[in-house]
Amino acid sequence: MWAIFKKELKTYFLSPIGYIAIGIFMLVYSIFFYLTTIMYGSLDMGNLYYATARYGLLLIIPLLTMRMFAEERKNGTEQLLLTSPRSVTSIVLGKFFAAVMVIVITLLLSIIYSVIVSFFGNLNITTIILTMIGFLLVAMAAISIGMLASSITENQIISAIITIVVLVAPWFLVDISSVFSSIDLMDKFMRFPYGVVSVADVVSLLSIAVMCILITIVLIKRRKAVK
User: Fold this and answer.
1) What is the extent of the structural domain holding 60?
2) The pLDDT value given to residue 121
3) What is the pLDDT of residues 5-24, one digit of tens each?
4) Stretch 116-139: mean pLDDT, rounded?
5) Residues near 148 by Cβ (< 8 Å), separated by ≥ 6?
6) How is residue 15 annotated by DSSP?
7) Residues 181, 187: contact at Cβ < 8 Å?
8) Strands (E), the chain
9) CA–CA separation, 65 vs 180, rounded Å?
10) What is the DSSP-derived secondary structure letter of residue 38?
11) Sequence-ordered list of residues with C-beta below 8 angstroms from that of 209, at least 6 positions apart, any chain
12) What pTM value is reported for the model?
């Protein structure tokens, strides 16, 4: 897994993808930082992460995940990957955690804003840390969804569209039935910016990530067996 992780992480930063993903995060975060903190003097940094997660991740996650397996299938290099000594599980987890690491880097960069604001007022550090953890959990669940989408098609654009639809659809479908709230990632994140951590929300986000990872592993193992 470590070898795949290093390879994938290096790929993100040897190409524009990693820098674009970080740039999108910082742009969206900066826009909301200006609209709230600068214009109105708000010290509520937690809601900045919520707004960034709601709108920024819709662009960042497809960008990070659409090429994971779709590109391998399109270029015909998937067979080489599957016949390597590494297990399918290590390949999937290596790709997953490489994408997660890009998110971790963006979160670390965002701390700069909190440091700047701390010179002008007292910040609730605990709430900020909890919100960042919540953001990471949401991103992990979203990455697993994007990775699963990438594993079922060789077209990166289709993979990105599927990911965006799955992330956005629950926002509207929840009005039809409350059942869809179980897959609404933002619904499980909305309490973190207020310093309220629900065990149910944490477990739900982790469960979605684990479930999508396991399905991805099963699908790729079946494809490997067929080939």
Assistant:
1) 2-226
2) 74
3) 998 999 999 999 999 999 99
4) 89
5) 212, 213, 215, 216, 219
6) S
7) yes
8) none
9) 23
10) I
11) 137, 140, 141, 143, 144
12) 0.92
Instruction: Report the pLDDT value the prediction gives residue 52, as an integer from 0 to 100.
Output: 93
**Whole-angstrom distance, CA of residue 142 vs CA of residue 140:** 5
Whether 82 and 223 have beta carbons less than 8 Å apart is answered as: yes
Residue (of 4, 140, 119) closest to 72 by Cα position? 4
Q: Which residues contact 120 (CB under 8 A, 6 or more apart)?
A: 43
The number of folded domains in the chain is 1
Is residue 2 scored above 60 in pLDDT?
A: yes
Which residue type is seen at 160? Answer: A
Contacts of 181-185 with C-beta under 8 Å, sequence gap 24+, read 183/208, 185/138, 185/141, 185/142
Residue 214 carries which side chain, given as an amino acid letter? L
Q: Distance (Å, rounded) from C-alpha 95 to C-alpha 49? A: 24
Alpha carbon distances (Å) from 77 to 73, 81, 84, 113: 6, 6, 11, 42
Interval 38-69: pLDDT, tens: 777 777 788 889 999 999 999 999 999 998 88
CA distance 118 to 48: 15
pLDDT in tens, 102-117: 999 999 999 999 888 8
Q: CA end-to-end span of the chain, whole Å?
A: 22
Q: How many CB atoms lie within 10 A of CB 67?
A: 22
